[in-house]
Each structure stands twice: as C-alpha cells, then as structure tokens.
C-alpha cells in the first residue's frame, strides 16, 4: 500500500481533512485511539462557514435533515430581556443562520462520506511516538502506532495532527499551548426541559452568582451553568442541574430524562505555530475554546477543510510554499474565534455590581441600535475572514478589471446565476461544490475563448478532475456560444449583474474553500493557471503496516496537561500583516 498522508484523530477535524484529501484524489491513512465515532454531543452548533465546507463535501444536506435552525440569541437579567440578536439574516450564502445538531451527527455524516470515497478509519489505533526526520532531501515523519495487533512504525511524507487538546503530536514536535484556563467549573446537561419557550432561541440568563444558558436542540434542550469548583469530577446529577436552574432561570422550568451530562473546565488557548515541517496541526490540537458561541467545532471543521485541500494540492504538484498559508490564514482565524469566546465568557462571569450594571447597559444599547446583530452574527458565522495578506493570494496582470464582489483574499459570495447550454446550477457556490479549484472567466465571446483555452491547459496538465473552468456571461446580454463544442468547462449567466456588464474579460481563481486567490485580465491568465494543481498525486511508497509484535498493547500514555504560561493576548492576529507591510477543549 502507498499513502502520502497520515491523519491522527478521527473527530470532525480529522474526518474533514481526510474526506477532502480523498475527494481530491489523494489517499490517506486515518487512525484514532477511540473504539469508534464519538457519542458525546460536545459540539452542538454549526455556523455558516463550517456548513459551507460541509456542503462542498456533500454532507450538509444530510446533517440538516435532523438539525434545528436556531432563530436568535438573547440575554436576560432578573427575568427581563436585555438584548436579542436574530439569526437567519445572512446574505450571500445558502446557510443564513446556524443549525443546532449534536456533534455525533456531524461525525457520522463525515465518516460515511469518507467511506463513500474509499477511505477507512483504523479505530483503537493510537499514535505513541512521533518524530520529524530532517537532513535528507525531503523531510518526513516517523510514527509509532499501537493497536490490538501490537506496534508498528511507519514513515510518511506528511502528517495531519487532529488528535485534540491533549493529543500526543503537538507535544512531540515541541509546540506549546499558550493561553489560560478559567477558574470556574462548568456543567452541562442535555434532556427534556418542561416549560421551555417554544421558539428556537438561545437564552443567556446572567445572575449575580453565575450564568444559565438554554440551548434548544432537535429533541430537547441543553442547560449550561458555571459554578465554583467543589472538588467533584463526576458528571452533575439531575438534582444539581435542577437546583441551578431554579436559582438562575426565569422560573417554571423542570429538567427531566437527562441523557447526557458533563462537568469540565474551559480554556482559551492557541498554539504559536500550526506547523512543524511536514507535521500540520488542526482543530483542538492547536486551539481550545470556551463554549460561548459554539466556535470550537466550527473552527476545527474549517481547519480540516483548509489543510486538506492545500496538502492535496501540494501532493499533486503545487508549490510546497502553499502550505505556509495554512498557518498564516488559520491561526489568525483561530485567535479571533478564541478571543471572542474568551470575552463572552468573561462577560458572563462578572461579579462586581458596577461591572454588571455597565455590561447590562451596553447590551441594551447594542441591541437597541442593531449593532449586536450586525457585528456579532458575521463574527460567529466566520464568513468575513480576510486572507488578503496571505502568501497564497495575489492580484495579477489586469486585476483591476475584476468587480468588488470578488475581493482578493475574501470568500466569494454565493451569487445568483442563470443556467446556460444545459447547465442546472443556479448559484456560484453550486459550481464550487465537491471541493474543486475553479477558474472563473467573465465576459462575452472573447471570455469564452479564454475559458476554452484555460480548460485545454487544465486538461493537458492532468488536473481536470480537480479544476473546473466556469465561463460566466454578463447579465442583460444575449447568450453567447462558442463555434466549437466548448467541452471542459461550464457556462452560466450572471443573474443579478453583481459581476459587472459586458466589458473587457477578466479572470479569477477561486480556491476549493471559495476564497478568491488570484484575479487577472486576459494577459495574466497563464500566471493564474500556474497556481493550480498540475498533475495526478505524487505517491511516496511507505509501509502500511510495520512489524507486528506478539506482545499485547502497553497501557496508554497518560494525557499531558498543556502549560498555562502565556496569555491569550500573545496570539496577535495582525502580527503577520505588520511584518509584511513593514518589509473545546474540555
């Protein structure tokens, strides 16, 4: 067997990365020390950014079948509503609001998709040692795996570490975890909540002695509390949860038939590096979030998607420097998400009467002016990430002709399109499905000729399975048709004139994650095409399984506790920008 990539960890992050790799034609091996897919519903909310990634993998629709669309979030004090932000108003996306769906549903959908793509997960297989090999012509990673078969040692060109906040890989390659752990203990209970409001609004009840969060679920509710540590480590009893509910809730609520409960500490941490040579770290392995805003699962899915398509591109012949953009883009996004959750949690836990009064006043003002909804929802949805300073994006010759709707380094909005010549997709994102690279060419017949040329180059380079060419004709113009067949690319029309009228043709390269990576005029098309994967995967032979020992597996290595040294503020998301312009865990 040959495999260029080993994925350690089969939670949402690892499964997303593995599915993207397989979908883009790159085989990988996936291992996880657990006996099977997760059953604990730790993550509960999927926001638009993660849902778009899952949609391109073909699993969002399946997940949405059993999900509950959340309608808004509100803050309450002394039984009175201080503020509300309505969900569901985001534009330019097929997912205008968040969905409430237990994490195991997402994991099962991703695992099923990986299986469809020919991948498997080796459960009860634990990475016990990881070492980066330097000094040869190419770096590699040697990993020792332990399972019921014994131990095996293998060497792979690339390793994706998605093994969680207490996983082995980050420690093994010498990357610290910077941030802090909250002093308070946090409790969660999932069950039936008699007397709860009928709508699907997330309620935050902030009392002098702590917070109560009520999250509607498809088949019940989640209640969430903080409290002083009491020395207990077992999950909270239903009686304790009910007592806290009575003390902090609006009254008249009864929790029963609890099916899952947990007691844990929350952290706000980000690793200073997301890569160590051929080892790329993603998800909880490099960022630990509080529960506020439900950002951990969402950030991890987007990490997995990003590292998956970028590593697939490199294995298929793209410049290895593309992987430098993984940390350059995903770390600032993680710092922002962690800081947002950290700030929300601190706001919940204010104890000073003066500080609580100020908080409540600010919440009322932000809600009354609409700023809470305008600012908070896009931040949580993670659709507004700016990668314009990334080393993986560039404006090329003739780029000023490209309209503002496609901003460099930003996610492309889901623009309305009209089908032409038998195509059926009615939006830009529908053409971006299945994680392909997209060369977008806009204009009349001359643009069609550019699109045909681009499709021919893609075919000659052997990348037709992962690169699509899309010719978009301007709105309010007669449909143009090439004299030749036009095979190798799709044709659509701009239904809303968002991309400008008939003028000089222009081109844009949309990455598999929908981000505008390059823009050009006709003269820059060759430069734009040079940035795409150019050949079938380069496979490096490695043993699928090393020597199997006759002895049984040794006990698992005790989990290491990350250091609590540096503060979260050391993770500055703007540091990279300044350098360039100057020269849930639980």
Automatic annotation (TrEMBL):
Residues 576-586 have a biased composition (Basic residues). The keyword Flavoprotein applies. It comes from the Bacteria. Residues 530-586 are annotated as: Disordered. Its cofactor is FAD. Residues 3-339 form the FAD-binding domain. One of its GO terms (molecular function) is FAD binding. It holds the Pfam family FAD_binding_3. Keywords: FAD, Flavoprotein. PANTHER family: BINDING MONOOXYGENASE, PUTATIVE (JCVI)-RELATED, TRK SYSTEM POTASSIUM UPTAKE PROTEIN. This is NAD(P)-binding protein. It comes from Streptomyces acidicola.
